[in-house]
Amino acid sequence: MNKAADIYLKENDKMAGFVRRFSDYCGISEDYGSRLNRIRKTFPPYTAENFSHDAIEAVLSAPEELREEIVS
Fold first, then answer.
1. Which has the closest alpha carbon to 15: 25, 1, 29, 27?
2. pLDDT per residue over 10-49, tens digit each?
3. Distance between CA atoms of 56 and 47, rounded to whole angstroms?
4. 8 near 18, Cβ under 8 Å?
5. Per the confidence metrics, is the pTM higher than 0.70?
6. Alpha-carbon distance 60 to 17, whole Å?
């Protein structure tokens, strides 16, 4: 998703519409694409691989100032 976002930004000079286009291209719901994008923007790519889906969702619902402490 990071690579796709970089390409989209380079081609369009904006990020508006990226999630919809990415979701359509991948054959996933826009809601799921939006959740993936939120995870992508919150954690470095290597960090998200170390957590289960439920753990990532729990961290995303925590206050932003506590996220780094929780992850560490």
1. 1
2. 999 999 999 999 999 889 899 988 988 888 887 665 455 5
3. 10
4. yes
5. no
6. 22
**Amino acid identity at 50:** N
Q: Token pair of 30, please?
A: 């826009």
pLDDT tens, residue by residue, 35-45: 888 888 876 65
CA dihedral 23, 29, 34, 36 (to 10 degrees): -80
What does the alpha-carbon distance between residue 16 and residue 20 come to, in Å, rounded to a whole number? 9
C-alpha dihedral sign at 14, 17, 23, 25: negative
